[in-house]
Amino acid sequence: MTVIVRDLRPDSPDDLEGFVRVRRLALPFILFTPDSVRHLLTRTPPDARFRSLVAEEDGEVIGTAQVALAHDSTEPGQGYLNVYVRPDRTRRGAGELLVRAGEEHLAANGANKVYAWLLDEPGNRAFAGRHGYTRGRPAHFLRLDLTDGTLPPLPEIPPGVVLRTAAEFADDPRPLFELDAETVSDEPGDITYAFTDYEAWLAQTWNHPLLDRELTVAAVADGRPVAFTVAYTDGGSRYSTAMTGTARAHRGRGLARLAKTHSLHRARAAGFTEAFTGNDAGNDPMIAINKRLGYEICGTEVRYVRELG
Hints:
This protein is α+β, with helices and mostly antiparallel strands. It is about 30% helix and about 30% strand. It starts with a strand and ends with a strand.
């Protein structure tokens, strides 16, 4: 049995389904569909040099990798490489081949540092160490059961604030882009991002196939969105928060929790049974909000880093 690594074919249903199958088995806390995998591959700006790789054994996709330059970072020369292998297909060399191919691609495109997320498990820690990666900051996956009655009641909407869904911004989503750009720049993490390209944001974020505009909720004050929670759904029973944040001038008023609580209530009413989210372990404000909403940690990942020389 021989394992090979190649680029994912975005026009191949078998490739897309295989990629999704691996990710769902290895990383069940994040939503993936064939459309979302194709979207990321075909809508990421060319400057990112983005590639989706698959490791194939006897015609079966057993491993995946997504590799790109952090093109919208404020610091050049950074890249990311996220590798996942089916849990029942490990120790076949797929991870080794994917890492090698990903690092070669990044180095050829000018990267001098590579970041990689790995679930915090003994085998992954050993794998990272063998390949020269240093442990960095952790993050948590959290899950909320929307069927057990633990979701808190809806809070009151403060005076001067109205709630609007993303669907209500369909004619002009730019205010949501501006809020997204401000909140992303303040997120804790190893890579600092700066969103400046509205057209790229429209292609990547606003038109993302998992974005649920009816469940994405923004708190609006003085005519502009000042806090929001971005909802993804997978066409089944699962809901995920892709981003929650508040404009700097409006923080400390509970508006992010307000928007997220209303979104979750909408999701439950629409028949969704599970809600997922993720937090950097140092993001104390969002961790506090999610605990109050009833989320519980269901997994931990760690971001590793390696200097490319």
